[in-house]
Amino acid sequence: MISRFIFVFCVLFVTTVSAHISFPRLSDALLEETYCQAATKNVLAAVNPAVFPGYWSVCADGHGFGYGNSYPSLDGLQLADALLWLGQEETVRLNWEYVRTFLREDGSLPLAILPASAGQLLANGISVDSNGGLYTHWVIGNPLAALAAPTFIANTHILFAYKQDRRWLEERIEAVNRTAGQLMSLTTDEGRVRGAGYYVERPTRIDSDGVTQTHAVNAFEQAANLNRLLGRHDDADRFSKQAQKIRQFFVEKFWQGSHFAEYYSPEKGFIFHHGLTDSDWGAIAFGVATPEQKQILFPRLAHESGFYYGTMPAGIATKPETYEDWEFTHPDKHDLAAMGRVWYLMAHALYRENDAQNLLKSLHAVANEGKKNDYYWRERYHPDGKGSSIPAGPNTYCEYPANFIRIVQRFLLGVELRLDGSIILAPLVVDAFWESGFGQRLSLPNRELAYRFDCKGISGTYWGEQPLRLGVRLHALGGNVVSADSVVATPLRPLAQEGELLFIVLPPAKKHDPAWFQLNVGSSP
Fold it and tell me: Do 348 and 473 sit in the same domain of this protein?
């Protein structure tokens, strides 16, 4: 039976979550164990409905960065996405609704929600709102100003793709558009998005972070796609045009001939002397760089070891020693570090460029660090100037484990849940995976897909109320594309080719009697 071979089942009795979850079979014992530990000891352990239904901490111990505090900007996406891959749709949906209650008329959302500090004065004259929301950063320069909107839009996007509830989206699209409007308000007429550091505070990256530009392009494209799905074509066109304006400014002005500027300073112009940076990863990850820029840039990124601080990916820049004091508006240099958020950008870019070896290398690096530390990770890994790193921040911070789950699903296994309900399986793995076989059970609302890949092709089962349009990328030697005329489908069904992907439509089926399918390369099964 397929389910016996493919799936590792665990019944979890975590402090706050009880669930029957199947984990992927990855043909790699270290990755399988790390995925399980990242889920059970970290991401699921951070969920605590005793605070409110839908609550999670950013630390597995529930206390790091404050009991009952929420961080909907960035952390909100990292954990929401990981929790959806772990089947926790209700938790993610309730958290989304909680965050929406803090949405202001101007579209702004808090970067943190600190209920116990409501109305209190923080550093540099910044106060927490009476509702507990921190809408302006206490670090001089107000970094993270452009972070909340892309996070909220992305969470709406992944929730709809997972849930496929059109009515839910129709009733919430105005909130999405309001946050997109706030992001528009940070954009200059020429197409440069302000807001200082996108996900870093120190260095502050005043006034336009390169990472902000590429995330903003992605956010406006996601907002456009959600509106277009609902037939709101005027809003969709408005957001698409905004994405294109930012993209054009970025590729024309941030490009420095061999790589992209890290950020734009009103006093000093474009800053690009810290080596390669996360701005470069973002340009590749979100498909913003032109083909010519990508041809110059990606080979440099792929062969650059400087993004590893010690053994940990990924640092914000390959020459961290070159930062100057004026680039920090706060005395410490806390974010001059390797962080899970940069690693995710790196992995995304490696996936787009089909670099399986470097993707696997990065996963092994993070897995080994977790194994050394009883499968917990720190918030930051600072370069020590001697080729190693110094762990810093809370010991149970969930950023690395959450991104481990996301990177395995989205890039190693290549799973994409599309807005139209179709599912894409386009794995990026080394030959050893194909030779041993790998797969998983994807349990989604009202449907489930179980599958196993190997050198011969893919086999699996599907049940659901609606037909499933499934796109797969099969194994081909030498980087070749498997064509539809070289694949045999069982039972016999039409195959459609779109680039590297082969599409097949699986029929509706009952849970107790799922539809079986098989695609074999080159011969009959």
Answer: no
Query: For residue 336, what are its two tokens?
Result: 């001059």
pLDDT tens figures, 284-305:
999 999 999 999 999 999 999 9
- What does the block give as tokens for 401? 């484990």
Bridge partners (DSSP) of residue 417 are 423
- From 417, 438, 469, the end of a domain falls on 417
DSSP 280: H
pLDDT at position 11 over 80: no
Residues 197, 343, single domain; the answer is yes
| Shared domain check, 278 and 157 | yes
Q: What are phi and psi of 438, to 5 degrees?
A: -160, 160
Given a contact cutoff of 8 angstroms between Cβ atoms, the answer to whether 405 and 43 are in contact is yes
Residue 404 sits in the same domain as residue 447: no
Tokens at residue 69, please? 């505090």
Final residue belonging to a domain, choices 417, 435, 467: 417
Would you list the DSSP string of 163-209? H--HHHHHTTHHHHHHHHHHHHHTB-TTS-B-SB-SS-SSS---SEE
- The tokens describing 98, both together, are 């909680």
Length of the chain: 525
Question: 393 and 435 in one domain?
Answer: no
What is the domain-level CATH number for residue 456? 2.60.40
Q: Are residues 239 and 373 in the same domain?
A: yes
| CA contacts within 13 A on the Cβ side of 307 | 27
Nearest Cα neighbor of 7 from 21, 31, 24, 28 is 24
Please tell me the distance from the alpha carbon of residue 32 to that of residue 470, in angstroms, as a whole number.
25
Asked if 167 and 358 touch (Cβ cutoff 8 Å), the reply is: no
- Give the residue numbers spanning the domain of 498: 423-521
CB of 83 closer than 8 Å to CB of 12: no
Report the CATH number that the domain containing residue 170 is assigned in CATH. 1.50.10.10
Query: Looking at residue 120, what DSSP letter applies?
Result: -
Instruction: Find the mean pLDDT for residues 275-288.
Output: 98
List, edge to edge, every strand of the sheet that includes 423-425: 415-417, 423-425, 468-472, 501-506, 496-498
Same domain, 130 and 108: yes
Three-state secondary structure call for residue 84? helix
Are 300 and 154 within one domain?
Answer: yes
Number of domains in the chain: 2
User: 181-211 pLDDT, tens per residue?
Assistant: 999 999 999 999 999 999 999 999 999 999 9
pLDDT of residue 100: 98
Alpha-carbon span 412 to 340, nearest angstrom: 16
